[in-house]
């Protein structure tokens, strides 16, 4: 830590622009070419969506609902496993299904106490709710065994909502480094992938299932001090989008969720650490969960990115060239969008 005007400044905010960091001519020209190619591909995707996909989506709007049912879904009771159901977005997903008839909800997360507290808060529900402890930091073999045991006891699982995730904002005073990054990789990637792939294998054998995986807009673009969190979420965004294509022929539908700023424990902690994002930007987790359920149940949506304005902005930022991307990551860090901490 250095002291500027008597105020402690974290290491990460003390960079100085040096002549060495000015891009070379060859690198700048390459970046200009990247921008030109981005404009062309962006126009092509715009025209394709406007002329081909928009008319198709209008035809879909008049197709009778029973023709839009997923293959092999007839007569199946819902068994919905929600990993990360104890609070935040996961708890809101639980509430979305709580009053569905003929439905079993398996609420899972690290701590059985916080799960039970959340379920008691719900009161009486039409759906049957079961609580299961599932710690994503456990050995992958153990996670797989736990998921299979849950499926055997309460299943067959028809829906998986994989919501759990952590950031370094949750704990006060933990400096970013190998340990913090390792824990985030364990929960946000390794544990998450272990439970998704175990459930996917079970669903594949049965030829039916719906999987909804929570990544983040932070995995598209973000401040440099979101380094480890954003990297884990970029992995999940890509993994989930690719699994959607691989799983479709097996009757398993995968939906990726990329939340923007949602008002939960995670972002409350981020705001407590001096994030400069205005309070009004934080949307309700219930709104997020409602869009997630709608996409999972009605199909035809690959990526649920919400709130829409934030999603549109973050997707647009993906088309900037590497020089501007680096500059943007630095500026947004300096603006303390995700607070003063490195996560
Ligand atoms: N909030 C946002 O603005 C935002 C934006 C983009 C993406 N996301 C993503 O949305 C997801 C949910 O976040 P949230 O905002 O709802 O956070 P949250 O309120 O902090 O909830 C996190 C959930 O993850 C569970 N969890 C944490 N560590 C776990 C572990 N080792 N094993 C199993 N479960 C564990 C927690 O369970 P316990 O209560 O048992 O610890 C809790 O249910 C995360 O993947 C997050 O990255 C959130």
From TrEMBL:
Q: Which GO terms describe its cellular component?
A: membrane
Q: Which UniProt keywords apply?
A: Membrane, NADP, Oxidoreductase, Transmembrane, Transmembrane helix
Q: Looking at the keywords, is 4Fe-4S present?
A: no
What residue intervals traverse the membrane? 32-54
Example of a GO MF term = oxidoreductase activity
Q: Give one Pfam family, short name only.
A: adh_short
The record's annotation in InterPro entries points to: NAD(P)-bd_dom_sf, Sc_DH/Rdtase_CS, SDR_fam
- The identity of this protein, by name, is NAD(P)-binding protein
Task: Reply yes or no: does the keyword Transmembrane helix apply.
Answer: yes
Q: Which organism encodes this protein?
A: Pholiota conissans
Q: Which PROSITE patterns does the protein's record reference?
A: ADH_SHORT
Would you identify the family this protein belongs to, as annotated? Belongs to the short-chain dehydrogenases/reductases (SDR) family.
């Amino acid at each position: 830590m250095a002291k500027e005007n008597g105020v402690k400044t974290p290491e990460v905010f003390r960079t100085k622009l040096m002549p060495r960091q000015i891009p070379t001519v060859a690198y700048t020209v390459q970046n200009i070419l990247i921008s030109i190619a981005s404009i062309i591909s962006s126009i092509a995707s715009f025209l394709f969506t406007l002329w081909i996909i928009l008319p198709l989506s209008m035809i879909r709007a008049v197709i009778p609902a029973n023709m839009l049912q997923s293959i092999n879904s007839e007569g199946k009771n819902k068994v919905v496993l929600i990993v990360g159901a104890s609070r935040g977005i996961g708890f809101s997903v639980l509430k979305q299904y709580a009053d569905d008839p003929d439905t079993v909800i398996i609420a899972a997360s690290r701590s059985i106490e916080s799960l039970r507290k959340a379920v008691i808060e719900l009161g009486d529900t039409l759906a049957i709710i079961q609580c299961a402890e599932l710690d994503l930091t456990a050995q992958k073999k153990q996670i797989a065994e736990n998921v299979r045991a849950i499926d055997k006891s309460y299943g067959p699982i028809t829906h998986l909502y994989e919501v759990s995730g952590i950031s370094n904002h949750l704990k006060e005073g933990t400096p970013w480094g190998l340990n913090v990054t390792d824990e985030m990789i364990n929960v946000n990637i390794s544990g998450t992938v272990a439970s998704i792939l175990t459930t996917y294998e079970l669903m594949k054998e049965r030829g039916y299932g719906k999987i909804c995986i929570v990544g983040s807009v932070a995995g598209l673009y973000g401040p440099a001090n979101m380094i480890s969190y954003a990297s884990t979420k970029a992995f999940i965004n890509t993994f989930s989008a690719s699994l959607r294509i691989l799983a479709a022929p097996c009757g398993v539908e995968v939906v990726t969720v990329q939340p923007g700023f949602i008002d939960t424990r995670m972002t409350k902690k981020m705001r407590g650490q001096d994030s400069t994002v205005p309070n009004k930007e934080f949307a309700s987790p219930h709104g997020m969960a409602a869009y997630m359920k709608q996409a999972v149940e009605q199909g035809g949506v690959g990526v649920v990115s919400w709130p829409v304005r934030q999603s549109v902005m973050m997707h647009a930022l993906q088309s900037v060239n590497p020089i501007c991307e680096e500059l943007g990551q630095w500026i947004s860090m300096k603006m303390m969008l995700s607070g003063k901490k490195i996560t």
